[in-house]
Amino acid sequence: MSFPTPAWLEEAMKKYDRKLNHVKLTKQIRQLMERSPFTISQTAAHEQARLDYLTKKVKHLIDRIGVYADLHPSYLAYAFALDKSQREMTWMVDLIREHQILRQRWEGRGLDSAILDELDKIIIYKG
User: Going by C-beta distance under 8 Å and a sequence separation of 6 or more, which residues neighbour residue 83?
Assistant: First the structure.
């Protein structure tokens, strides 16, 4: 049993292919690099180093606590989401609300609230 193909699907796939054509994207990236080659490379290197540092901090904590390896990706995902909200949001009310949303979401997925509290202590720097 097969389902009918929606009328919009073929046009959407063509649009997707046009937008993400690797030849077009390579040209656009090279143009950006010609305008500011050091800025792009330095920003990427800085962000990669920051993410690596955060990953190591979180892994060290959850290894010390004794979290099963199967749950490491979930705790890392929570840490990355919390870190992103800390970097992008300016107002304290937004930070508090986003933290509440993240806690509800990840506790609902079965993560231990005591471990999330420990992660909060090392990640939250605003407030």
Answer: 54, 123
d(CA 81, CA 120): 11
pLDDT tens figures, 34-87: 777 666 677 788 889 999 999 999 999 999 999 999 999 999 999 999 999 999
Region 9-123: CATH code: 1.20.58
Q: Does the predicted TM-score (pTM) go above 0.85?
A: no
- C-alpha 59/C-alpha 125 separation (Å) is 18
The span from the CA of 95 to the CA of 85, in Å, is: 7
Cα(4)–Cα(53) distance, integer angstroms: 49
Side chain identity at residue 29, one-letter code? I
